[in-house]
């Protein structure tokens, strides 16, 4: 009986500490940004702004991914080796996550405005999610190719 209470306490504490860890960027939802903000833009300006927003989003994605991965490693090591150290985890989603959500919303608003203005969708830059997915697929293919060479 005492063992179950102790185990329950450890599990509850672990869950509470994990709530303080940084979220993976894939889990951050886009904030709402009104497309009205871009109604006075022409297609060229929309494309330029989408490119800028996409690049900034990708930079933040890398930072957030590194932070979330680091928190996950610290959590794993802390649970196994020294759980009191988990109390000192930085954790949580900082201002970068808020900016990331806003930029995702900006990109969606720009894409919506581009559709309304009948801009050539082929000339628009890919979304940050599309770029991330493509890079992940390239890394996976490269890893598989490396593994087949090693065998």
Give a brief rundown of this model.
With 151 residues, the protein is mostly helical. Helix content is 66%, strand content 0%. It has a domain at 23-125.
What can you tell me about this protein's structure?
The protein has a domain at 23-125. The protein is built from four helices and no strands. It has helices at residues 2-18, 43-80, 95-116, 128-150.
- C-alpha Rg (nearest Å): 21 Å
Number of extended strands: 0
Fraction of residues in H or I helices: 55-70%
The unreliable regions are 3-20
List the helices and strands and how they pair.
Elements: H1 2-18, H2 43-80, H3 95-116, H4 128-150
Helix pairs in contact: 2-3
Descriptors:
single chain, 151 residues, mainly alpha, 4 helices, disordered N terminus, signal, Lipoprotein
